[in-house]
Structure formats: structure tokens, C-alpha cells
Amino acid sequence: MEEFIPGQRWISNAELQLGLGxxxxxxxRTITIDFIASGETRTYAxxxxxxxxVVYDEGEQVKSVEGxxxxxxxxxxxNGLIIYGGIDSSGQSVILEETxxxxxxxxxxxxxxxxxxxxxxxxxxxxxxxxxxxxxxxxHSELSGLTGCHTSLIAHQLYIAHEVxxxxxxxxxxxxxxxxxxxxxxxxxxxxxxxxxxxQRVLIIVPESLIHQWLVExxxxxxxxxxxxxxxxxxxxxSNESDSDSEITASADSNPFLSEQLVLCSLEFLAxxxxxxxQALDGEWDLxxxxxxxxxxxxxxxxxxEYQLIEQLSQQIRGILLLTATPEQLGIExxxxxxxxxxxxxxxxxxxFIAEEEGYQPIAQAMEVLISEQELDQNTxxxxxxFLPEEANTGETTRQELIEHMLDRHGTGRVLxxxxxxxxxxxxxxxxxxxxxxxxxxxxxxxxxxxxxxxTEDEHPTEADNFSNLVLFPELLYQIEADNVK
Length: 486
Hints:
Distance between the termini: 91 Å
Number of helices: 17
Number of strands: 16
Helix content: 25-40%
Strand content: 15-25%
């Protein structure tokens, strides 16, 4: 431990701006330093005081309290206090006690601190070194940005997120079955892309009924604060901009979608408001997420208004995540509609896509052999020669490399990710629990009238008769529904 003697000059490592301090009191456990230059007084514990003793060496220039500049010629320690001998600017020899050093000396620059020996202890250097080393390891980890969410990840979720999030501009269809965590996968990808600054502006479009579910999931699990955009919010933003600047008008220059980086809105809102949709289209997004993408209807003859909106956005935005549990809900045409949004160059024509699908069986057989531990037979080798270019199919190519080449060249490849409960184990089984429901009044009234037309005056229909009629005459049910809609 340093010996503290009143009159010694010290500088605070934590507050260099205080200037040169003078030790005015040394107690058993504490010391008091007076920083005259800043008018501050500090009391420190002796054992861990963040102080460095200021002692100049021969040849250095110092200033006295009177402002005289002195070049030090020799240094003497007198009972713990330093006495400097030197030559002033007029060439005369002078003696300068350390208590007479200029109080306004500040040693902020690294070179100055080094020259006076103001060097941190080794354990602080080791701590900083280990911290920077650990930060570097975490930054370069393959799981960076994927393990900080507030949920228990399942292996397939982590695999998909890692595979997709490391792409520069991911354009994929997440099509896991219901309950396997498509929202979690999308959140992991978003989180990773934002942390690595591959994406800064994100637009999420979902059905109106899922707006608040997505808002809560992104905040609770990934600490991502999305802003819900609807007509009320857009009008409020435009109104505020108009009030703050008379030259800005809500209908012309302002774009509310540029006011936030992370935006969540409903598909219905964009479809019903052409002006706001055009503003969203001009939002310069880095990543687009569309949930329940199977609701976007498309055929070779025509497409829905909602599909056209997403298609225009997909042409403007680099990264796209489409989420659906039923990619082929309306058949192969529905599946193709999603794929052409992601890669119109790879999937330009429905007929060509169908023709390509018809030739998938031998490709699937070759992939099964590659993935398994089986030895490649002559038939498989011949298939690989047909399906892969010569440069990708050499004797030195490993199985994994062959699989990678096949994925890149055939089928949906890296565009589609789908898992089912058949392949993903560990989920509880589903049980059907029936709950009887009473027949709606509208159904009962119509069925009674319908039954009476077949019964005599002495017969009366029962509830069971009503249900039987409902089963026997489904067209009647459809008519009831149609009348209710009208």
C-alpha cells in the first residue's frame, strides 16, 4: 500500500478533469484530496483509492503555481515529499516543492499518463482483455442472436433460424405444421438480422386478428418493440407533422411509415387504404414478414387484391419471410403462388413447375441414398451425373457437398422449410374432446317448418328429427347461411 503523506500530489484515475490534487488529510482508513483547480474535495478509502501519485522525472517541463515554466534537472525525495530542482525560463536555478506545482495540470492524454507512470494495475488490464476476448467470441459464434430469446427452443427451430438468419437477404417460406413454432422461427431470424445489422427496417403484415398476438410475442420473447400502424396512428403522425411544419401536408410529402423502424400492421388495413399502402411501398424496408400467407389467393388467370399488394412489396424488399401451415391448402397452384413471390426467376411458370415436380421421384431416391449411410450404387451415381453438372460431380466431392448441390438445383431447395409432427417428436398427443352445442334458433325454426311439410297434423318433430333433417339435407344448411349473410 502506498504511503500517504499530506502535501503529496495525486491525480484521480476516474476523474482526470479535476486536475492535480493535494493530499490534505490521511486517516487510519481514509484519505482526503483537495482539487483546488476544480474546487472539489474527495475522500477515498486507502485500500482501493483510484489515485496515481504524480512524480516528474529529470528533463520534463513543469509549471509552478505562479505560472513559471521550469525544466527539471534533479529530483529528491524528502520524507515522502518530492523536491524538484531545475532551471526557469530566465536560466536561473530554482527549487520547487511538489506542493507548489500548478493545480491546473491535467493528464488526459495516454502519452502523458504513461510518462508520469499512471498505469493501471495488471488485474484491470487482464479484466479488460478477457472481456474484449469474450465479446469477440460471442460476436463470431454461430449462435449469436439466436439464444437470447425468452423461450425454450426446439432443435428444428434453431436449425431453421440458423440456416435462414445467416443469409444476407433471406427469402423463404416457413411452412411448419400448426404448433411447431413458425412465429418463434421468424422472431429468431428477425432478432439475428437486426443484431448483425443486416436489417434495420422491418415490416410485419398479418391478419387483423393476429396483430396483438404478434406484438406481444415479439416484445415478450425477443424484446423487439414493434409499432402497430392503423389509420388512427397514421392520421395522428400526419397531423403532428403538419402542426410542426406548415409546409408539410398529410396528403403529399409526409410518410408515417418512415417514423418507425419496426412496423406491424394488418393486411386488411393496407388493402383498404391505397394511400397508406403506397406510403408503405415507399418505406425502404430491409425485411418483410407475412403471416397466414395461404390467404393470398392466386391463379394463372387472376389474383386477389391482397396478393397483388404483397407481390409489389416483394419486388421492392430484399428479404421476405412467408409463414403458412398449409402451403398446399388449395392445391399445387396455391403452393406455387407462394414460391413465385419469393423467387419469380426460379418459379416463373406454373406449367413448368408442375412438369418439374413430376420428375422429383428419382431425385428424391438419390437424396435418400446420399443422406443415408448406404454406399452409392451404380444407379444413384448415374442419376447424379444426370442431375448435376460435371464440375459438381467429381470423385473428390463429399456426400454433403453433393447434397448441397442437389438442394441448390432441384425442387424448392432452400426456399421452403417444412416440418410435421410426424418427424418432430416430443409433442403431447392430440385428443378430441366433444362438447355438445345447442342448435341455433335460426336453424331450429327453418328445420321445424321443413319437417312440418313432411309430417301429418298429428305428428310433431323432435330435436333428434331436426338434427336428422340437417344431416339429410345439407343444402338447406347452406341456404340458411346464405340468408344470414344477406
